[in-house]
Amino acid sequence: xxxxxxxxxxxxxxxxxxxxxxxxxxxxxxxxxxxxxxxxxxxxxxxxxxxxxxxxxxxxxxxxxxxxxxxxxxxxxxxxxxxxxxxxxxxxxxxxxxxxxxxxxxxxxxxxxxxxxxxxxxxxxxxxxxxxxxxxxxxxxxxxxxxxxxxxxxxxxxxxxxxxxxxxxxxxxxxxxxxxxxxxxxxxxxxxxxxxxxxxxxxxxxxxxxxxxxxxxxxxxxxxxxxxx
Length: 229
Fold this sequence. Notes:
This protein is α/β, with parallel strands linked by helices. The protein folds into 2 domains: 5-125, Rossmann fold (3-Layer(aba) Sandwich); 128-227, Orthogonal Bundle (Arc Repressor Mutant, subunit A). Helix content is 43%, strand content 21%. It has 8 helices and 12 strands. Helix 6 packs across helix 8. It is globular and about 55 Å long. It starts with a strand and ends with a strand.
């Protein structure tokens, strides 16, 4: 039996019940919240290992809950949404969601995504070296998961840090979006490659003096991205 706890935040009882049932069959412990405020209380009282949340929640929607959570934690988030607008998915990712699933969805696929996100998160915790990577004016510290630029500490989300860490560990090596998805998210088949584009854009806004003319996170057109020290 897995010790990992999943918080399912969903106001539709039928969906919440099915998601919980499949997660429990897969060996996870499951807790439930019916709205954003109840989710806050559950997270504060017992932080879960991963959160599956609906986008359209009463009291506090998924965007607001994600923003609140990312101000204090890097707990992985998988967002559920019936809205197929790309802007909603991009907004969720930019706020710090790790993955999203469109309704209606296969419960087995959701379980696979939960496993993939948790697996990558756990591997990152075990495998990241304790030694910071240092470049002129730039330090990436895996212990604090902070980026320091010219003595200024910059906080990154879990996936932002892992994306930067992957590229910085291999300076000038070009990674395709699929390779980044495989290494950072642990899966590429179900995730839109634009997820990587969103995270690269967020990173540039945090580390580049001019994000429109990046000096560190370079796009190699038609291939992918590389880190230029």
